[in-house]
Amino acid sequence: MFSLTAGPDATERRYYQLHYDYEVAAHCGLVSPRIEQAFRAKRRVADGIATRPVEVQRQIRLKAYVDAAGEYDNRSLGGHKQWCRLEGREGVRRLLTLPE
Q1: HEC string of 29-69?
Q2: Distance CA 32, CA 39 (A)
Q3: Spatial CB neighbours of 88, under 8 Å, sequence gap ≥ 6
Q4: Packing angle, helices 89-96 and 33-49, rounded to 10
Q5: I need a labelling partner for 56 at 20 to 30 A (CA). Which of 12, 14, 28, 47 fits?
Q6: CA-CA distance, 56 to 2, in Å (whole number)?
Q7: What's the distance, CA 78 to chain centroid?
Q8: 2: helix, coil or strand?
């Protein structure tokens, strides 16, 4: 099972962050066709160079989804607006940034 506390490598962290950023953007209503296209392009590259088994990749994606949903649920009524302005927009910026 994938766990961020078990010392994932940099590739796993980037893969998690890619999916987390997209999920936060989706929860915040920030996904546009441009964001969707950037996410899909980065995911194709990430899936193509993945060294982990498909099941580990699936677990990473699931953890990112659950973590983003949990963060959204943890915000009070209206508290998600600040989260979206900060973390949501930062995630969008990362999605639109070319890979390092």
Answers
A1: CCCCHHHHHHHHHHHHHHHHHCCCCHHHHHHHHHHHHHHHH
A2: 11
A3: 24, 25, 27, 28, 30
A4: 60
A5: 28
A6: 6
A7: 22
A8: coil
Tell me the mean pLDDT in the region 30-49: 91
Contact predicate 59/11, CB 8 Å? no
The span from the CA of 26 to the CA of 56, in Å, is: 23
Averaged confidence pLDDT in the chain: 85
User: Which two tokens mark 76?
Assistant: 């009070």
Closest CA to 22 of 99, 82, 93: 93
Please tell me the pTM assigned to this model.
Answer: 0.84
